[in-house]
TrEMBL record:
GO MF annotation list: indole-3-glycerol-phosphate synthase activity; phosphoribosylanthranilate isomerase activity
Family matches, as PROSITE patterns: IGPS (PS00614)
Species per Swiss-Prot/TrEMBL record: Natrialba asiatica (strain ATCC 700177 / DSM 12278 / JCM 9576 / FERM P-10747 / NBRC 102637 / 172P1)
Annotated protein name in UniProt: Indole-3-glycerol phosphate synthase
Documented EC number(s): 4.1.1.48
Top-level EC class: lyase
Biological processes per GO annotation: L-tryptophan biosynthetic process
Pfam families xrefs: IGPS
Indole-3-glycerol phosphate synthase domain mapped to chain residues: 15-269
Pathway linked to the protein: Amino-acid biosynthesis; L-tryptophan biosynthesis; L-tryptophan from chorismate: step 4/5
NCBIfam families (alphabetical): Indglycph_syn_Halo_TrpC
Similarity comment text for this entry: Belongs to the TrpC family.
Domain of life (superkingdom): Archaea
Residues spanning the signal sequence: none
Length: 286
């Protein structure tokens, strides 16, 4: 799915690192007993909370700094602020994440936990248990060329999106398929995705534009759980994404506040309580 436009150098570097990762040791496929995201969203809606998936994101290529806080303390503080689910970056080199952090977070909270990483094939799934697993449509079927001819990963076959969706479900994960445009959405739906994230961050330029969600969301069938990802900076953006049809929002930077080091409970709560009583969802099936 990456044909066409160039990727930002930081994203190329992320993909190269993903291709060369040695945490994808050959091991038995995981068998996960997953916590349901849709049930968690329903609970939030009943409580009058905007469903927010709060992200433990120590740093990133576009962050203003790094937060060194313990991931468990961050995650429990986010849940205290009303988060419906937690996303944990497990990519170590560019995001400061780890599989161990995810495991500790999942043990500490009772909400669903998303593994946010750059999974390119089935072997990449069997690293750590999580309730949801991110699959990025743009990166499926593509492996960055590696200089390391010795890298055993260079010989792993590339997978198709439908195969990865099935493989994730076979392990018990709920696959969250991330898209950025209509073509990727079509591929995600053809692959059988039931949870779709529209990423407002363009991985070619790393620029964020909330218009992306607004333009792609109307093409998402109503029976798909739809998540607005990236660039949601405050309550006004929450309202905007909800009005455009988001069932839930994935928020990292605005909660982590890498530069300001503010209270993640308060930051989460501000988003969870962003909507007034008059909330509308205008997504229509096409
Ligand atoms: O966040 C980045 O800088 C980034 C750069 C390159 C590829 C992916 C990147 N982010 C991954 C994410 O999906 C976000 O962490 C997530 O959607 C939350 O975004 P935000 O609320 O804007 O931090």
């Amino acid at each position: 799915m990456t044909q066409g436009r160039e990727l930002a150098p930081a994203v190329r570097s992320i993909l190269t690192a993903a291709s060369e990762r040695d945490d994808t040791a050959e091991c038995d496929p995981l068998a996960v007993d997953a916590r349901s995201l849709t049930d968690a969203i329903d609970r939030a809606e009943r409580d009058g909370r905007v469903p927010v998936i709060a992200e433990v994101k120590p740093t990133s290529p576009t962050s203003d700094g790094t937060r060194e806080d313990d991931p468990v303390e961050l995650a429990t503080a986010m849940v205290e602020g009303g988060a419906t689910a937690i996303s944990v970056l497990t990519e170590p080199t560019h995001f400061g994440g780890s599989a161990e952090a995810l495991t500790r977070v999942r043990e500490a909270v009772d909400v669903p936990v998303l593994r946010k990483d750059f999974v390119l094939d089935e072997a990449g799934m069997d690293v750590v248990e999580a309730d949801l697993l991110l699959l990025i449509a743009r990166f499926v079927g593509v492996r960055e060329p590696t200089d390391s001819r010795a890298s055993r990963n260079a010989t792993r076959p590339e997978a198709e999106l439908d195969e990865l969706v099935t493989a994730a479900r076979d392990r018990g994960f709920q696959p969250l398929v991330e898209v950025h445009d209509e073509a990727e959405l079509e591929a995600a739906l053809e692959a059988g995705a039931e949870i779709v994230g529209i990423n407002n961050r363009d991985l070619a330029e790393l620029e964020v534009d909330l218009d992306t969600f607004e333009s792609v969301a109307p093409h998402v069938p109503d029976d798909v759980t739809l998540i607005a990802e990236s660039g949601i900076s405050g309550p006004a953006d929450v309202r905007r994404m909800r009005e455009a049809g988001a069932d839930a929002l994935l928020v990292g930077s605005a909660i982590m506040d890498h530069a300001g080091d503010t209270d993640v409970t308060a930051n989460t709560r501000a988003l969870v309580r962003a909507t007034a009583e008059t909330e509308t969802k205008t997504r229509t099936q096409t």
